[in-house]
Protein: Glycosyltransferase
Amino acid sequence: MKICIIRNSEGPMNAQLIRIGTALNKTDNEIFFVTRVRDTDDENQVIKKKINIDGKDFTNYEIQLPAVIGGGIKNIIPLLKYQRELYYWLKNNQDKFDVIHAIDYDVGSIALKIAQKFNKKLVYHIADFYSDSRLNIPVHLKSYLRKKEFNIINKAEATIICSEDRKEQIAGSHPKKLVIIHNTPPLKQIKTEIVKVSSSRNLEIAYVGGLEKKRFIDQVIPVIERQPMFNLTLAGSVGDARESVSEVSSISNITYLGKIPYNKALEIYKKVDIMFAIYDPFHPNHKYSAANKVYEAMLLGKPIIVAKNTGMDKIVEAENMGYVIDFNSDALEQILLHINDNRKELYEKSKNAFNAYSKYSWEVMEERIIKLYQNLD
Structure:
């Protein structure tokens, strides 16, 4: 089969795209990607590029269309332009694919139209349930979007969700086939030596991803500035925390690296003592969050800090692999002081994170993806 994998995101930076590509690379299927760049001055261009996965290059058709990252309702016009561009590209290139692997509603709504019109198969992959992941949407519009997304779920050949908890989020839909693919990094567990942290050096902490307020970035920066015993490394696309990130250049213990590909993110995390994925629990979608970073922490054997009532807290507490805090700067400051005074805890929590990986291993997730596509034939 010829498979078109689409997400409204940059290709090399997106873990979800790399994850699916890595699995399907081990099959006889032909795959390619359609992605989008928002941070651009170009508009309505589609540039043919390459994405490298496991040393092999795959074609990536990159739609150039600017938008404000984390811009919310301001991005409605750019979104409609993107969907129009995507529709016509798929229509004009329908001979290139038999199956569309569409990630999230903004892509899935277009993919369903194309699949029905041109007799293509559709695999719908929910990274973020749309009506819950957008704030400031009127209630009646949320209800409309939920019904529209349920329609995609009901009509797709298969639907992918990232955790058991997400079944509750899509209750009321009727997927033909439902597959759970945890957000495990597409790598075998790295053989790493877990060592005790010295009391004589600064502790290293890092975050790679969307630099937005709902991800706590605007609160992390001033807290770390006041904690000279910690060094913070940030990387990723700057969203509505732009003002806070712009101040980093004048803070001696914080470094911002800009946008980096996914494999570089793992290299950064390998060198840190602790990770964080502190998401705003007020955000409805975060109740069911299954951040890549929790699984990356398992892969690398790193303790992680998460927020209460964000889905991830259950795993972190159950595996004793990190710290769960309230979503405020005082709570972060207190836990960092505790960690600095109790560095021996990091060793035990690192071992626990590493040992938890087997429950969510990439080998298991990869096999699920491969079987899903074998059953589409």
Remarks:
- The chain has two domains: 2-184+361-375, 187-358.
